[in-house]
Every structure is written in structure tokens, then in C-alpha cells.
Design goal:
Layout (H helix, E strand, L loop, with lengths): L15 H6 L2 H9 L1 H7 L4 H9 L18 H14 L1 H18 L4 H12 L4 E4 L14 E5 L2 E8 L10 E7 L5 E7 L5 E4 L14 E9 L14 H30 L16 H42 L1 H28 L16 H10 L6 H13 L13
Parallel strand pairs: 1-4
Antiparallel strand pairs: 2-3, 3-7, 4-5, 6-7
Helix pairs in contact: 2-5, 5-6, 5-8, 5-9, 6-8, 8-9, 8-10, 8-11, 9-10, 10-11, 10-12
């Protein structure tokens, strides 16, 4: 069934459904076991493997480089569909897609060519940016030191989402003088240890735990020539979260519809002999679905702004892309609170259409709210509206980076 026929609106391109058709059977398989995996804390190694084999992780590469040439609106729409199946899998691949953008936007032909080849070969990348130690805002405790022609990494990262499933870790650190360093670290090299110790109540299957680096030796070609990330990185990474939320909303809509269709018990003070005919119940189902629809539509509109930023970078470089990048940040910030509220409401309201049996673990309906609430705790939304207001009133552009640390 096409996205249009399913009532979610037209896809972002005329070819979208043909592109998505390759992956929808895999999304369906992932969806079929999502509740059981969540209940048993079974990490999605196999599921991510299926996506890699199908070429999902190469979406953004040109066909001539072994990819699918997907535009950013197409990518984000596919992430909505994947998140409808299991939002954990999307979050586990977030760093990989961000690293791919970094490669595509790199000013270094050698770095770009080397990593396009690796991504085309099916290699994936996890996150090694955030820390929970005492480092101050804008600094890292993880240090990369020169040793002859090589480099040596020592440190500890947390929120290393997806690294346990990946071939590489995209590492942000600093050298001995405090200057920033970006590197790619093989996950299966001596001195690297990755722990699945994330204990959050949501997004539990993303392996967002600890990565430790002890005397890890890197060759010089694994140190990125540029010390900054791609210009539209903040917009991109936040929009992955919003696409994931929109997918959670669709999953909630799908679940409440299915359970209302199957429900045979009614209340004496209800409005019909069948739950599926009760107008108040139908209104709840409609509200959940409408919230999911609106969230997805907002994500696709914001994705157009990120696509314009990408095109500006490719056409004129980082400095020339500054206006388009700033507007992309504004559009994503405008979307954050709205999409968040829509999905948090949808994942709560769905229970109003069902009875007490809906809270049974076999249905796993609580995971929708838990996953949504966990995602919305990243890069707190309370600061986004203020940033939008500052832009509207004084023209102040959003900050280029959001960093966390001690004051």
C-alpha cells in the first residue's frame, strides 16, 4: 500500500513509494517482533543486519557510489516508517546517517572518497561524542595524543548510541593542547570496550551505554582533516529524533486501531453495542491518528529546509551555506515542541479508547510513551522555543552547536 493510500499523505517525491518498497518487508519483520524484543531486552543485531544487507545504510550515497541517491526528505520519510516498526532501530542508526552527511559534506576529497567506499561496502558508524564526566562545556576528557606517526586515544564516552552494532565509532575528543579532534575508531580494535549499560526506561535497545578507550592506536588516516562537523549537523540530528517521534505516533495509531477493531467488551454507559461503533471511541482513535499525521507532515516540511542547507554546502561550501543552515535550525526548532506535544499526547490518549486490559505487558503499549518521552529529553525542548522567539524578535540565529558539560 502506498503512503497516500494509507492516509499519511503523499511521499516527498514521485519515486518515494518505489524506493520504500525495497525496505517495507523488512520494516514489517522488525515490527512483528518489536514488543517481544522490548520486553526481553533483546538488542536488534539481526534487524540492523537485515537493513544493512538491503542497502538501507547506503541510502544517501549516489547510485554511482553504490547507494540509492535518496534526498533528505526521502531519508527522513523512511526513518518515520522504520520508527513505526521500532524506534530503537532508528535511534541506533542515527549516528551512522549523521556520519554519512559529514562525509558527503567534507571539503577533503581523500576523506570523502575513503569513507564513501566504506559506507558503500556496508560498514556502519556509531556515536562517540557525549560524555558524563567532569569536563566543562565545550571540552572533552577523552584525549587523542600523537605518538610518532600514529595517534593514541584514551577516555570514556557515554550515550554511545549504535556503537555496539557498528564497525566504527565517530569520536569527538581533544588533543593534549585542548584543540578539537574528530576521529574514526574501529570498534573491534585493541583497547576499545563497549558496554550495554544504558538503563533508561525508554529506547532501551539502542545500546546507548559506555564506550571506553584505553591506549587505542589509530593511524593518521583515521583522523578527520577538518575539526568541525557538517554545518547543518544540529538540524539533522534533531530531525532524526523528530522523525522517530512521528514514527512512534504512527505505531500508536496503528496499535489503537487494531485493538479497537478486535475489542468485544463494552461498557454499560458506552454508546454502542460494539466498541468499534462507539463514536467517542472513534474520536479518540481519530485524534491519535491525526496527531501522528501532523507530526509526520511537519517533519517532511522541516526536511526540505535541511535539504536546502545540504545543497548550499555542496554548491558553495560552509561559509556560503550559513544562511540556509541557520534557517534549517530555525525550522527544526519551531517543530520540536509541536511534534513532541503531538506524539506525547497521542501515546497517552490511546489508552482512553481501550479498557484496563490495554495495560497488559503483552501489548507493550507503554513503550510508545516511554520511547517518546526518552527521545524528547535529548537537547531539552524548553530551550527551543526561546531560540525561535529570539530569531523572530531580534533575528538572532540559533547556536551552531549544543554541548553539555559542567559550568
Amino acid at each position: 500500500m502506498s503512503q497516500t493510500d494509507a492516509g499519511w499523505g503523499a511521499g516527498p517525491s514521485g519515486r518515494y513509494d518505489a524506493l520504500a518498497a525495497r525496505f517495507r518487508p523488512i520494516f514489517s519483520e522488525i515490527r512483528a517482533t518489536a514488543v517481544a524484543r522490548d520486553a526481553g531486552r533483546t538488542l536488534p543485531h539481526a534487524e540492523i543486519g537485515w537493513l544493512k544487507e538491503a542497502g538501507f545504510t547506503t541510502l544517501r550515497l549516489d547510485p554511482s557510489d553504490g547507494g540509492h541517491g535518496a534526498g533528505l526528505p526521502e531519508l527522513f520519510n523512511l526513518l518515520i516508517e522504520l520508527s513505526q516498526a521500532d524506534s530503537n532501530v532508528t535511534n541506533a542508526l542515527r549516528a551512522h546517517f549523521g556520519f554519512t552527511e559529514d562525509v558527503l559534506s567534507s571539503a577533503s576529497p581523500e576523506w570523502r572518497a575513503r569513507w564513501i567506499a566504506r559506507i558503500a561496502a556496508g560498514e556502519t558508524v556509531g556515536s562517540g561524542v557525549s560524555e558524563t564526566g567532569p569536563a566543562k562545556v565545550g571540552q572533552f576528557d577523552t584525549v587523542v595524543r600523537r605518538r610518532g606517526e600514529d595517534w593514541v586515544v584514551d577516555g570514556r564516552k557515554f550515550y554511545t548510541t549504535g556503537s555496539l552494532f557498528a564497525d566504527w565509532i565517530h569520536l569527538s575528543a581533544q588533543d593534549e593542547s585542548g584543540a578539537p579532534v574528530i576521529a574514526a575508531v574501529p570498534t573491534r580494535t585493541p583497547g576499545v570496550a563497549i558496554d550495554d549499560d544504558w538503563d533508561g526506561f525508554g529506547q532501551a535497545l539502542t545500546a546507548s551505554g559506555t564506550a571506553r578507550f584505553t591506549g587505542v592506536v589509530l593511524s593518521a588516516d583515521l583522523i578527520k582533516p577538518e575539526t568541525v562537523r557538517f554545518p547543518y549537523a544540529m538540524a539533522f540530528f534533531q530531525l532524526v529524533h523528530l522523525a522517530t517521534l512521528a514514527g512512534i505516533g504512527r505505531a500508536a495509531a496503528e496499535d489503537v486501531t487494531r485493538l479497537v477493531q478486535a475489542r468485544t467488551r463494552v461498557y454499560s454507559h458506552g454508546n454502542a453495542g460494539r466498541t468499534a461503533d462507539d463514536p467517542q471511541i472513534l474520536a479518540v482513535v481519530g485524534r491519535v491518528r491525526s496527531n501522528a499525521y501532523a507530526a509526520g507532515a511537519i517533519v517532511l516540511k522541516a526536511a526540505e529546509a535541511v535539504q536546502r542547507a545540504y545543497e548550499a554546502v555542496r554548491a558553495g561550501g560552509r561559509d556560503a551555506a550559513e544562511p540556509a543552515t541557520a534557517i534549517a535550525d530555525v525550522e527544526i526548532n519551531q517543530a520540536v515542541t509541536v511534534v513532541t506535544n503531538l506524539v506525547l499526547e497521542a501515546t497517552t490518549a490511546l489508552f482512553d479508547a481501550l479498557g484496563a486490559s490495554a495495560v497488559k505487558e503483552e501489548h507493550g503499549l507503554d513503550r510508545h510513551w516511554r520511547n517518546a518521552r526518552t527521545l524528547t529529553s535529548h537537547n531539552p525542548r524548553i530551550y527551543r522555543e526561546r531560540s525561535v522567539g529570539e530569531f523572530a524578535v531580534s533575528g538572532t540565529r540559533p547556536p551552531r552547536e549544543y554541548r553539555v558539560g559542567t559550568a
